Amino acid sequence: MTQVDAETKAPPAAKLTLLTLTTMVVGSMVGAGVFSLPSRFAQETGVAGALIAWAVAGTGMLMLAFVFQRLAISRPDLDAGVYAYAKAGFGEYLGFFSAFGYWASACVGNVTYWVLIMSTIGAIAPALGDGDTVLAIVLSSVGLWSFFFLIRRGVKEAAAINRIVTVAKIVPILVFIILALFYLNPHVFAENFGGADYAGSLFQQVKGTMLATVFVFLGVEGASVYSRHAKRREDVGRATVLGFLSVFAVFASVTIVSYGIMPMGEIAELRQPSMAGVLEHAVGTWGQVFVSVGLIVSVLGAYLAWTLMSAEVLFVAAKDEDMPRFLGRSTSADVPVPALLMTTLLTQVVLVVTLFSDDAFNFALDLTSALTLIPFLLAAAFAVKIARGRLGGDLAIASLATVYTAFLLYAAGLKFILVSFIIYAPATALFVMARREQGRRLFSPRELVILAVSIAGAILGIVALAVGWISL
User: Fold this and answer.
1) In angstroms, rounded to a whole number, what is the distance separating the alpha carbons of residues 83 and 69?
2) Which superkingdom is the protein from (predicted)?
C-alpha cells in the first residue's frame, strides 16, 4: 500500500469533547499577548482609555464569539469555520484568502512567542537582546523545529499536552493580578487615569490599543477551526463562548491593576515581558522570576495550540480543493504533515525577518492582528448575509460584529494593511495550483478584480517600504 493510500484510509482520531474544545480555546487565547499588555497599553493610553478599549474590545469580540457559536449550529456542514464561512458567503477566491490570511496570521503570531521567550531569557543573557539578535533567532529556530517533530507524532498527544499547559500557565497570571491588587497605590492609579501627555486624545488612546486587544483575543474562534473533530456540533459554539468569558476578565485585570503599581511612562519603557517588570517593582526580584517562568510555560503552550490550528486550516482548505492537494495529506495519527511543514517554514521565514525590524515583538503582534481581520470580517459578514431578511438577535449580533471588525481595520492603519497585501498577493500561486490540478479556469471576471486589487496593494506596499513611507 502506498503512503497516500495509507493516509487516505487512516482511521479517524478520537472526537473532542466540550471540555477539550474549551481548553483549546483558552489555551489559544492565553499566550504571549497577556504578558506584554501592561507596557503595550501604557504606550498608548491611561486608565480611562484602557477601560473604554476593553469595553469596546470585549463587546466586539463577544459578538464575534456569538457569531461563531450560531454559525456552528446553523451551518454544521461547514468545517474549519473561519475559512469555510468566507467561502460559503463570498466565493472560492475570498474563501482562499480567508484561509491563507488566517493561517499566515497564526504563523506570524507564533513568531511573537519565540521573540518574547528569548527576550525573557535575555534579561539574564544579554546576547539574546530583546529576542531579535542572531543568537536568539538560532535558538528560536531550534525550538521551532523541535515542536514540529513533537506535533508530527500525533494531534491527540499534542492536545493532551496543551490541556496540562493551559492549567499551568493560568496560575502565574492570577497570582500577578492578586499581588498587584494587594500592592496597588491609589495615588499612582489616579495619576495614570487620564493618560500621559504623549498619549493624545481619548479617541487616539483607544484606537491605539485596538490591535493589541485583537491579538490577545485571537483563539476565540479556535473551537470552530476544530469543528470536524468535535464529538457534538453544539459543543463548538459552547466552547467558543465559555472560552471567551473565561479569559476576558483576566486580560482586562492584568492591564488595569498595572496602572496602580507604576507611573504610566515607566510601564511603557519596560522590556518584554512587561508584566514581569511590573511585579518586580511591587514585590522584588522574585516577582520577575515568577512571571518569567510562567511566561515560558504559557508561550510554549500557546505555540503548540496555534501551530495545530493553523495546520488544520490548510488541511481542510486542501480537502475542499481550495489549496493544492499535497496539503490535504495526513498520517495515520491524523496529523496533516505537509500543512504542518508549511506552517513551520513560514514561521521560520518571518522569524528571520524580525532581524530587520525596529521592534520585532510589536511589529509581529500588530501584523498578526491585521492579517486576522479580513477572515474575521468575512465570517461576520457571512453571518449578516444568512440572517438578512429576518429581524432578531442573530442579525443584530452579526451586524455589531461586522461593524467592530471594520473599525479594527481602520484602527490598524495603512501600514499594516499594505504589509498584509504583500503577504496575501503571492499566495495566489497556491490558488492557481489548485485550479490547475482540477483542470478549471484560473479566474472568473469577479476573481480577476480581487486579484488586481491584491496585486496593486502589494506593489504599493513594496514601494512604501522601499522609499521609507512605512517601515518594519
Assistant:
1) 15
2) Bacteria
Q: Name residue 64's amino acid.
A: L
For the segment 177-215, what is each residue's pLDDT rounded down to a tens digit? Answer: 888 888 888 898 888 887 777 767 777 778 777 777 777
CA dist 254 and 394 (Å) reads 32
What is d(CA 203, CA 6) in angstroms, rounded to the nearest whole number? 57
For range 293-297, the mean pLDDT? 77
Name the residue with higher pLDDT: 163 or 33: 33
**Partners of 16 in beta bridges:** 230
**Cell 483576566 found at:** 250
Residue 230 bridge partners (DSSP): 16
The pTM of this model reads 0.75
Peptide bond into 336 cis (omega under 30): no
Contacts of 470 (CB under 8 A, 6+ apart): 414, 415, 418, 419, 461, 464
Provide the pLDDT confidence category of residue 293 given band limits of 50, 70 and 90: confident
Residues 6+ apart with CB under 8 A from 64: 220, 221, 376, 379, 380, 401, 404, 405
Type of residue found at 90? F
CA proximity to 140, closest of 153, 167, 124, 121:
121
The candidate with the shortest Cα–Cα distance to 98, out of 458, 372, 329, 380, is 372
Residue among 55, 35, 454 at smallest CA distance from 249: 55
Q: Which cell numbers hold the place of 310?
A: 493553523
Collect all residues with Cβ–Cβ distance below 8 Å to 186 and sequence separation of at least 6. Answer: 260
Q: How many residues are present in the chain?
A: 472
Residue 280 one-letter amino acid: E
Residue with cell 517600504: 465
